[in-house]
Protein backbone atom coordinates (compact mmCIF):
# COMPACT_ATOMS: atom_id res chain seq x y z
CA UNK A 1 0.00 0.00 0.00
CA UNK A 2 2.79 2.44 0.91
CA UNK A 3 4.59 1.62 -2.34
CA UNK A 4 1.38 2.29 -4.29
CA UNK A 5 0.93 5.67 -2.61
CA UNK A 6 4.52 6.68 -3.41
CA UNK A 7 4.00 5.63 -7.03
CA UNK A 8 0.87 7.77 -7.23
CA UNK A 9 2.54 10.77 -5.61
CA UNK A 10 5.53 10.75 -7.98
CA UNK A 11 3.80 9.62 -11.19
CA UNK A 12 5.46 10.75 -14.43
CA UNK A 13 3.55 13.63 -16.15
CA UNK A 14 3.21 11.62 -19.39
CA UNK A 15 1.63 8.75 -17.48
CA UNK A 16 -0.71 11.15 -15.66
CA UNK A 17 -1.73 12.68 -18.99
CA UNK A 18 -2.35 9.28 -20.61
CA UNK A 19 -4.46 8.13 -17.64
CA UNK A 20 -6.45 11.36 -17.82
CA UNK A 21 -6.99 10.87 -21.56
CA UNK A 22 -8.22 7.35 -20.85
CA UNK A 23 -10.89 8.78 -18.53
CA UNK A 24 -11.92 11.23 -21.26
CA UNK A 25 -12.28 8.40 -23.78
CA UNK A 26 -14.32 6.32 -21.31
CA UNK A 27 -16.96 9.04 -21.00
CA UNK A 28 -16.60 10.68 -24.43
CA UNK A 29 -19.25 8.61 -26.22
CA UNK A 30 -21.87 9.42 -23.57
CA UNK A 31 -20.91 13.10 -23.57
CA UNK A 32 -21.12 13.42 -27.37
CA UNK A 33 -24.09 11.15 -28.08
CA UNK A 34 -26.43 13.14 -25.82
CA UNK A 35 -26.20 16.43 -27.78
CA UNK A 36 -26.42 14.48 -31.05
CA UNK A 37 -29.66 12.83 -29.93
CA UNK A 38 -31.26 15.97 -28.53
CA UNK A 39 -30.33 18.15 -31.51
CA UNK A 40 -31.59 15.54 -33.97
CA UNK A 41 -34.94 15.30 -32.18
CA UNK A 42 -35.37 19.08 -31.89
CA UNK A 43 -34.16 19.99 -35.38
CA UNK A 44 -31.11 22.07 -34.46
CA UNK A 45 -29.01 23.54 -37.27
CA UNK A 46 -25.47 22.39 -38.04
CA UNK A 47 -24.04 25.50 -36.36
CA UNK A 48 -26.21 25.01 -33.25
CA UNK A 49 -25.16 21.38 -32.96
CA UNK A 50 -21.47 22.29 -33.20
CA UNK A 51 -21.92 24.80 -30.38
CA UNK A 52 -23.93 22.32 -28.29
CA UNK A 53 -21.28 19.59 -28.51
CA UNK A 54 -18.43 22.01 -27.78
CA UNK A 55 -20.11 23.69 -24.81
CA UNK A 56 -21.20 20.30 -23.46
CA UNK A 57 -17.62 19.00 -23.43
CA UNK A 58 -16.42 22.22 -21.80
CA UNK A 59 -19.19 22.07 -19.18
CA UNK A 60 -18.32 18.41 -18.46
CA UNK A 61 -14.78 19.54 -17.66
CA UNK A 62 -15.91 22.43 -15.45
CA UNK A 63 -18.43 20.23 -13.63
CA UNK A 64 -15.73 17.58 -13.03
CA UNK A 65 -13.28 20.12 -11.58
CA UNK A 66 -16.00 21.55 -9.31
CA UNK A 67 -16.67 18.09 -7.88
CA UNK A 68 -12.99 17.05 -7.59
CA UNK A 69 -11.90 20.35 -6.01
CA UNK A 70 -13.55 19.59 -2.68
CA UNK A 71 -13.64 22.69 -0.47
CA UNK A 72 -15.81 23.45 2.57
CA UNK A 73 -18.72 24.65 0.42
CA UNK A 74 -18.96 22.24 -2.51
CA UNK A 75 -17.22 19.24 -4.08
CA UNK A 76 -17.01 15.71 -2.72
CA UNK A 77 -13.23 15.69 -3.27
CA UNK A 78 -13.12 12.21 -4.85
CA UNK A 79 -11.70 11.19 -8.25
CA UNK A 80 -15.02 11.33 -10.13
CA UNK A 81 -15.95 12.47 -13.63
CA UNK A 82 -19.19 14.30 -14.40
CA UNK A 83 -21.05 14.11 -17.69
CA UNK A 84 -24.50 14.61 -19.20
CA UNK A 85 -27.27 13.00 -17.20
CA UNK A 86 -28.44 10.41 -19.75
CA UNK A 87 -31.79 10.07 -18.01
CA UNK A 88 -32.45 13.72 -18.93
CA UNK A 89 -32.45 13.04 -22.70
CA UNK A 90 -36.08 11.94 -23.05
CA UNK A 91 -37.45 14.68 -20.75
CA UNK A 92 -35.48 17.36 -22.62
CA UNK A 93 -36.80 16.16 -25.96
CA UNK A 94 -40.39 16.09 -24.69
CA UNK A 95 -40.07 19.55 -23.13
CA UNK A 96 -38.47 20.98 -26.28
CA UNK A 97 -41.19 19.56 -28.52
CA UNK A 98 -44.06 20.72 -26.32
CA UNK A 99 -42.81 23.97 -24.73
CA UNK A 100 -39.77 25.04 -26.75
CA UNK A 101 -36.02 25.05 -26.18
CA UNK A 102 -36.17 28.02 -23.79
CA UNK A 103 -38.31 25.96 -21.40
CA UNK A 104 -35.67 23.21 -21.35
CA UNK A 105 -33.02 25.53 -19.97
CA UNK A 106 -35.37 27.26 -17.56
CA UNK A 107 -36.24 23.84 -16.15
CA UNK A 108 -32.57 22.82 -15.93
CA UNK A 109 -31.66 26.00 -14.04
CA UNK A 110 -34.62 25.55 -11.66
CA UNK A 111 -33.74 21.89 -10.98
CA UNK A 112 -30.10 22.84 -10.30
CA UNK A 113 -31.21 25.52 -7.82
CA UNK A 114 -33.47 22.91 -6.20
CA UNK A 115 -30.49 20.59 -5.68
CA UNK A 116 -28.36 23.47 -4.36
CA UNK A 117 -31.00 24.68 -1.91
CA UNK A 118 -31.97 21.26 -0.59
CA UNK A 119 -28.49 19.65 -0.70
CA UNK A 120 -28.35 19.52 3.09
CA UNK A 121 -31.57 17.53 3.43
CA UNK A 122 -31.29 15.32 0.37
CA UNK A 123 -30.65 12.37 2.66
CA UNK A 124 -34.27 12.65 3.73
CA UNK A 125 -35.65 13.37 0.25
CA UNK A 126 -33.84 10.33 -1.16
CA UNK A 127 -35.92 8.16 1.17
CA UNK A 128 -38.80 8.88 -1.21
CA UNK A 129 -36.68 7.24 -3.92
CA UNK A 130 -35.78 3.76 -2.69
CA UNK A 131 -34.58 1.24 -5.30
CA UNK A 132 -38.10 0.14 -6.26
CA UNK A 133 -38.90 3.74 -7.23
CA UNK A 134 -35.51 4.63 -8.75
CA UNK A 135 -35.37 1.39 -10.75
CA UNK A 136 -38.89 1.95 -12.08
CA UNK A 137 -38.16 5.57 -13.07
CA UNK A 138 -34.90 4.68 -14.87
CA UNK A 139 -36.70 1.85 -16.68
CA UNK A 140 -39.47 4.23 -17.79
CA UNK A 141 -36.93 6.77 -19.07
CA UNK A 142 -35.10 4.08 -21.05
CA UNK A 143 -38.29 2.71 -22.60
CA UNK A 144 -39.44 6.16 -23.74
CA UNK A 145 -36.10 6.62 -25.54
CA UNK A 146 -36.25 3.47 -27.69
CA UNK A 147 -38.55 4.98 -30.38
CA UNK A 148 -36.07 7.87 -30.78
CA UNK A 149 -33.31 5.35 -31.53
CA UNK A 150 -35.34 3.48 -34.15
CA UNK A 151 -36.44 6.68 -35.87
CA UNK A 152 -32.79 7.68 -36.30
CA UNK A 153 -31.78 4.17 -37.34
CA UNK A 154 -34.32 4.35 -40.17
CA UNK A 155 -32.84 7.62 -41.45
CA UNK A 156 -34.76 10.17 -39.41
CA UNK A 157 -38.48 10.65 -38.88
CA UNK A 158 -40.10 12.05 -42.02
CA UNK A 159 -37.12 11.31 -44.28
CA UNK A 160 -38.00 10.42 -47.87
CA UNK A 161 -35.72 7.38 -47.79
CA UNK A 162 -36.79 6.30 -44.29
CA UNK A 163 -36.16 2.58 -43.81
CA UNK A 164 -34.00 2.25 -46.93
CA UNK A 165 -31.54 -0.61 -47.23
CA UNK A 166 -28.54 1.67 -46.71
CA UNK A 167 -29.90 3.05 -43.42
CA UNK A 168 -30.87 -0.38 -42.13
CA UNK A 169 -27.51 -1.88 -43.13
CA UNK A 170 -25.57 0.88 -41.36
CA UNK A 171 -27.79 1.00 -38.27
CA UNK A 172 -28.04 -2.71 -37.59
CA UNK A 173 -24.44 -3.20 -38.72
CA UNK A 174 -23.26 -0.82 -36.00
CA UNK A 175 -25.47 -2.53 -33.43
CA UNK A 176 -24.04 -5.96 -34.34
CA UNK A 177 -20.50 -4.54 -34.28
CA UNK A 178 -21.01 -3.16 -30.75
CA UNK A 179 -22.47 -6.49 -29.61
CA UNK A 180 -19.44 -8.36 -30.98
CA UNK A 181 -17.04 -5.86 -29.40
CA UNK A 182 -18.74 -6.36 -26.05
CA UNK A 183 -18.61 -10.13 -26.43
CA UNK A 184 -15.01 -10.57 -27.58
CA UNK A 185 -13.10 -7.70 -25.93
CA UNK A 186 -12.28 -6.93 -22.32
CA UNK A 187 -11.16 -4.09 -20.09
CA UNK A 188 -10.88 -0.57 -21.46
CA UNK A 189 -11.58 -1.56 -25.08
CA UNK A 190 -14.91 -2.99 -24.01
CA UNK A 191 -15.72 0.18 -22.06
CA UNK A 192 -15.40 2.29 -25.24
CA UNK A 193 -17.09 -0.22 -27.58
CA UNK A 194 -19.84 2.29 -28.43
CA UNK A 195 -17.26 4.92 -29.38
CA UNK A 196 -15.41 2.40 -31.57
CA UNK A 197 -18.73 1.31 -33.10
CA UNK A 198 -19.60 4.91 -34.00
CA UNK A 199 -16.17 5.36 -35.60
CA UNK A 200 -16.39 2.10 -37.58
CA UNK A 201 -19.94 2.88 -38.70
CA UNK A 202 -18.94 6.37 -39.85
CA UNK A 203 -16.01 4.98 -41.85
CA UNK A 204 -18.34 2.45 -43.52
CA UNK A 205 -20.86 5.22 -44.23
CA UNK A 206 -18.07 7.28 -45.77
CA UNK A 207 -17.41 4.55 -48.34
CA UNK A 208 -21.15 4.60 -49.14
CA UNK A 209 -21.17 8.36 -49.63
CA UNK A 210 -23.33 8.96 -46.56
CA UNK A 211 -20.96 11.27 -44.64
CA UNK A 212 -21.19 15.06 -44.85
CA UNK A 213 -17.87 16.84 -44.21
CA UNK A 214 -19.35 20.35 -44.32
CA UNK A 215 -19.61 20.72 -40.50
CA UNK A 216 -15.83 20.38 -40.11
CA UNK A 217 -15.10 22.76 -42.98
CA UNK A 218 -17.49 25.38 -41.62
CA UNK A 219 -16.52 25.13 -37.94
CA UNK A 220 -14.07 27.63 -36.49
CA UNK A 221 -10.89 26.73 -34.60
CA UNK A 222 -11.86 28.71 -31.50
CA UNK A 223 -14.98 30.17 -29.93
CA UNK A 224 -15.92 31.88 -26.70
CA UNK A 225 -18.55 30.67 -24.28
CA UNK A 226 -21.89 32.39 -24.87
CA UNK A 227 -24.46 32.29 -22.03
CA UNK A 228 -28.07 31.75 -23.13
CA UNK A 229 -27.00 30.85 -26.66
CA UNK A 230 -30.49 29.55 -27.49
CA UNK A 231 -32.27 32.56 -25.99
CA UNK A 232 -33.67 33.72 -22.67
CA UNK A 233 -34.85 30.79 -20.50
CA UNK A 234 -38.54 30.46 -19.63
CA UNK A 235 -39.88 28.83 -16.49
CA UNK A 236 -42.92 26.55 -16.78
CA UNK A 237 -44.24 24.29 -14.04
CA UNK A 238 -44.46 21.00 -15.98
CA UNK A 239 -40.90 21.13 -17.39
CA UNK A 240 -39.55 22.23 -13.99
CA UNK A 241 -41.28 19.36 -12.17
CA UNK A 242 -39.97 16.94 -14.80
CA UNK A 243 -36.36 18.07 -14.49
CA UNK A 244 -36.52 18.15 -10.68
CA UNK A 245 -37.56 14.49 -10.74
CA UNK A 246 -34.68 13.72 -13.09
CA UNK A 247 -32.30 15.63 -10.80
CA UNK A 248 -33.44 13.68 -7.73
CA UNK A 249 -32.94 10.37 -9.55
CA UNK A 250 -29.47 11.55 -10.66
CA UNK A 251 -28.57 12.55 -7.09
CA UNK A 252 -29.74 9.17 -5.80
CA UNK A 253 -27.49 7.41 -8.31
CA UNK A 254 -24.59 9.78 -7.54
CA UNK A 255 -24.98 8.96 -3.85
CA UNK A 256 -24.40 5.31 -4.62
CA UNK A 257 -21.37 6.15 -6.76
CA UNK A 258 -19.89 8.40 -4.03
CA UNK A 259 -20.35 5.73 -1.37
CA UNK A 260 -18.97 2.97 -3.61
CA UNK A 261 -15.91 5.05 -4.46
CA UNK A 262 -15.46 5.82 -0.77
CA UNK A 263 -15.25 2.07 -0.15
CA UNK A 264 -12.69 1.67 -2.96
CA UNK A 265 -10.57 4.46 -1.43
CA UNK A 266 -11.11 3.28 2.17
CA UNK A 267 -12.63 6.66 2.98
CA UNK A 268 -15.68 7.02 5.20
CA UNK A 269 -17.92 9.72 3.74
CA UNK A 270 -19.91 11.88 6.15
CA UNK A 271 -23.25 13.54 5.53
CA UNK A 272 -21.34 16.83 5.07
CA UNK A 273 -19.18 15.23 2.35
CA UNK A 274 -22.31 14.05 0.55
CA UNK A 275 -23.96 17.48 0.91
CA UNK A 276 -20.91 19.12 -0.69
CA UNK A 277 -21.11 16.57 -3.51
CA UNK A 278 -24.81 17.34 -4.06
CA UNK A 279 -24.05 21.07 -3.98
CA UNK A 280 -21.36 20.72 -6.66
CA UNK A 281 -23.76 18.69 -8.79
CA UNK A 282 -26.47 21.33 -8.35
CA UNK A 283 -24.02 24.08 -9.31
CA UNK A 284 -22.98 22.09 -12.39
CA UNK A 285 -26.65 21.71 -13.40
CA UNK A 286 -27.23 25.49 -13.03
CA UNK A 287 -24.14 26.20 -15.17
CA UNK A 288 -25.44 23.71 -17.73
CA UNK A 289 -28.68 25.68 -17.92
CA UNK A 290 -26.96 29.06 -18.17
CA UNK A 291 -24.62 27.93 -20.95
CA UNK A 292 -27.41 25.98 -22.69
CA UNK A 293 -25.85 22.54 -22.40
CA UNK A 294 -27.21 19.80 -20.11
CA UNK A 295 -27.73 18.75 -16.49
CA UNK A 296 -24.69 16.89 -15.16
CA UNK A 297 -24.21 13.87 -12.95
CA UNK A 298 -21.46 11.52 -11.78
CA UNK A 299 -20.43 8.92 -14.38
CA UNK A 300 -20.19 5.47 -12.87
CA UNK A 301 -18.16 4.08 -15.81
CA UNK A 302 -15.26 6.30 -14.79
CA UNK A 303 -15.46 5.00 -11.22
CA UNK A 304 -15.27 1.52 -12.72
CA UNK A 305 -12.10 2.66 -14.49
CA UNK A 306 -10.63 3.76 -11.15
CA UNK A 307 -11.38 0.29 -9.82
CA UNK A 308 -9.86 -1.38 -12.89
CA UNK A 309 -6.64 0.70 -13.12
CA UNK A 310 -6.20 1.01 -9.32
CA UNK A 311 -5.13 4.64 -9.85
CA UNK A 312 -7.03 6.52 -7.17
CA UNK A 313 -5.54 10.03 -7.07
CA UNK A 314 -7.35 13.19 -8.11
CA UNK A 315 -4.57 14.58 -10.32
CA UNK A 316 -5.56 12.20 -13.14
CA UNK A 317 -9.18 13.46 -13.01
CA UNK A 318 -7.96 17.07 -12.95
CA UNK A 319 -6.05 16.38 -16.18
CA UNK A 320 -9.17 14.77 -17.70
CA UNK A 321 -11.31 17.78 -16.73
CA UNK A 322 -8.72 20.14 -18.18
CA UNK A 323 -8.64 18.21 -21.46
CA UNK A 324 -12.42 18.45 -21.79
CA UNK A 325 -12.30 22.22 -21.21
CA UNK A 326 -9.59 22.66 -23.88
CA UNK A 327 -11.54 20.53 -26.38
CA UNK A 328 -14.68 22.55 -25.61
CA UNK A 329 -13.04 25.75 -26.85
CA UNK A 330 -12.25 24.16 -30.26
CA UNK A 331 -15.39 23.75 -32.42
CA UNK A 332 -13.38 21.92 -35.11
CA UNK A 333 -12.95 19.01 -32.70
CA UNK A 334 -16.59 19.17 -31.63
CA UNK A 335 -17.67 19.12 -35.29
CA UNK A 336 -16.00 15.71 -35.76
CA UNK A 337 -18.95 14.17 -33.94
CA UNK A 338 -21.27 15.55 -36.64
CA UNK A 339 -19.71 13.24 -39.21
CA UNK A 340 -21.74 10.40 -37.66
CA UNK A 341 -24.79 9.75 -39.90
CA UNK A 342 -28.17 9.46 -38.23
CA UNK A 343 -28.58 5.76 -39.04
CA UNK A 344 -25.16 4.96 -37.49
CA UNK A 345 -26.10 6.95 -34.39
CA UNK A 346 -29.46 5.18 -34.25
CA UNK A 347 -27.82 1.75 -34.23
CA UNK A 348 -25.61 2.79 -31.32
CA UNK A 349 -28.58 4.36 -29.51
CA UNK A 350 -30.48 1.07 -29.53
CA UNK A 351 -27.67 -0.37 -27.40
CA UNK A 352 -27.28 2.78 -25.26
CA UNK A 353 -30.98 3.20 -24.53
CA UNK A 354 -31.34 -0.52 -23.96
CA UNK A 355 -28.59 -0.15 -21.36
CA UNK A 356 -30.66 2.55 -19.63
CA UNK A 357 -33.54 0.07 -19.43
CA UNK A 358 -31.22 -2.70 -18.22
CA UNK A 359 -29.76 -0.30 -15.63
CA UNK A 360 -33.25 0.16 -14.23
CA UNK A 361 -33.80 -3.59 -14.29
CA UNK A 362 -30.45 -4.11 -12.52
CA UNK A 363 -31.49 -1.75 -9.74
CA UNK A 364 -34.77 -3.61 -9.38
CA UNK A 365 -33.19 -7.06 -9.60
CA UNK A 366 -30.32 -6.47 -7.15
CA UNK A 367 -31.87 -4.12 -4.60
CA UNK A 368 -35.61 -4.85 -4.56
CA UNK A 369 -37.23 -7.78 -2.77
CA UNK A 370 -39.14 -9.24 -5.71
CA UNK A 371 -40.63 -11.97 -3.55
CA UNK A 372 -43.00 -9.30 -2.18
CA UNK A 373 -46.12 -8.91 -4.31
CA UNK A 374 -46.34 -5.25 -3.27
CA UNK A 375 -43.02 -4.41 -4.95
CA UNK A 376 -44.01 -6.23 -8.14
CA UNK A 377 -47.27 -4.29 -8.17
CA UNK A 378 -45.46 -0.94 -7.72
CA UNK A 379 -43.16 -1.72 -10.66
CA UNK A 380 -46.01 -2.96 -12.85
CA UNK A 381 -48.27 0.05 -12.30
CA UNK A 382 -45.59 2.75 -12.45
CA UNK A 383 -43.91 1.40 -15.61
CA UNK A 384 -47.32 0.75 -17.18
CA UNK A 385 -48.50 4.27 -16.36
CA UNK A 386 -45.31 5.91 -17.61
CA UNK A 387 -45.17 3.97 -20.87
CA UNK A 388 -48.93 4.27 -21.47
CA UNK A 389 -48.95 8.07 -21.14
CA UNK A 390 -45.87 8.31 -23.37
CA UNK A 391 -47.44 6.20 -26.13
CA UNK A 392 -50.91 7.79 -25.89
CA UNK A 393 -50.28 11.37 -24.66
CA UNK A 394 -53.63 12.63 -25.97
CA UNK A 395 -55.51 10.44 -23.47
CA UNK A 396 -55.68 13.26 -20.90
CA UNK A 397 -55.96 16.16 -23.35
CA UNK A 398 -59.43 16.99 -22.01
CA UNK A 399 -58.41 16.96 -18.34
CA UNK A 400 -58.09 20.19 -16.32
CA UNK A 401 -54.75 22.01 -16.57
CA UNK A 402 -53.69 21.00 -13.06
CA UNK A 403 -54.36 17.33 -13.85
CA UNK A 404 -52.43 17.50 -17.11
CA UNK A 405 -49.35 18.51 -15.11
CA UNK A 406 -49.45 15.12 -13.40
CA UNK A 407 -50.88 13.00 -16.19
CA UNK A 408 -49.69 14.49 -19.47
CA UNK A 409 -46.03 13.51 -19.10
CA UNK A 410 -45.08 9.84 -18.96
CA UNK A 411 -42.04 10.30 -16.73
CA UNK A 412 -43.91 12.46 -14.19
CA UNK A 413 -46.95 10.16 -14.25
CA UNK A 414 -44.85 7.02 -13.81
CA UNK A 415 -42.61 8.60 -11.16
CA UNK A 416 -45.43 9.91 -9.02
CA UNK A 417 -47.25 6.58 -9.36
CA UNK A 418 -44.13 4.80 -8.08
CA UNK A 419 -43.63 7.29 -5.20
CA UNK A 420 -47.28 7.20 -4.13
CA UNK A 421 -47.59 3.41 -4.31
CA UNK A 422 -44.30 2.91 -2.47
CA UNK A 423 -45.49 5.15 0.37
CA UNK A 424 -48.82 3.32 0.38
CA UNK A 425 -47.30 -0.19 0.50
CA UNK A 426 -43.89 0.31 2.09
CA UNK A 427 -43.97 3.65 3.92
CA UNK A 428 -40.63 5.50 4.03
CA UNK A 429 -38.72 2.23 4.43
CA UNK A 430 -35.01 2.08 5.20
CA UNK A 431 -33.14 5.20 6.24
CA UNK A 432 -29.92 3.94 4.73
CA UNK A 433 -30.74 4.16 1.03
CA UNK A 434 -27.23 5.44 0.30
CA UNK A 435 -25.64 2.34 1.80
CA UNK A 436 -27.89 0.08 -0.32
CA UNK A 437 -26.93 1.99 -3.47
CA UNK A 438 -23.24 1.88 -2.55
CA UNK A 439 -23.32 -1.89 -2.05
CA UNK A 440 -24.95 -2.35 -5.44
CA UNK A 441 -22.44 -0.09 -7.22
CA UNK A 442 -19.48 -1.75 -5.52
CA UNK A 443 -20.68 -5.24 -6.41
CA UNK A 444 -21.20 -4.16 -10.03
CA UNK A 445 -17.72 -2.63 -10.27
CA UNK A 446 -16.02 -5.62 -8.71
CA UNK A 447 -17.86 -7.92 -11.12
CA UNK A 448 -16.91 -5.74 -14.11
CA UNK A 449 -13.26 -5.51 -13.11
CA UNK A 450 -13.17 -9.25 -12.57
CA UNK A 451 -14.41 -9.84 -16.11
CA UNK A 452 -11.87 -7.36 -17.44
CA UNK A 453 -8.90 -8.98 -15.73
TrEMBL record:
Keyword Membrane: yes
Protein location: Cell membrane
Membrane topology, from the record: Multi-pass membrane protein
Residues passing through the membrane, by range: 21-43, 49-69, 76-96, 102-121, 128-150, 162-182, 194-217, 237-262, 316-337, 343-364, 376-396, 402-425
Any Pfam family hit: Xan_ur_permease
UniProt key word Ribonucleoprotein: no
Listed name of the protein: Xanthine permease
The organism of origin for this protein: Paenibacillus silvae
Amino acid sequence: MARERIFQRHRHPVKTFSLGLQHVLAMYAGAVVVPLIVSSALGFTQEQLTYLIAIDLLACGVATLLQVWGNKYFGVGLPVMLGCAFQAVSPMIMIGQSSGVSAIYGAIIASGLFVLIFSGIFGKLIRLFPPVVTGSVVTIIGLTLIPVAFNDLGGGQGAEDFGSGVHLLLGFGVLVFIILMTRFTTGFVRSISVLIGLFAGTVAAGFMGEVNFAPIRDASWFHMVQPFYFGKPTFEIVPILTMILVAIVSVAESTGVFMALGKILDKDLTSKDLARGYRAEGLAIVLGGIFNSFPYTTYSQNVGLVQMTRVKTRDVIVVAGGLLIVIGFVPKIAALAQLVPGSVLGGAMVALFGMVVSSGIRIIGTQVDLSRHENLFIIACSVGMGLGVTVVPQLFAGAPAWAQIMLGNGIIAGSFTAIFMNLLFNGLGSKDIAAELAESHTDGMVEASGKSA
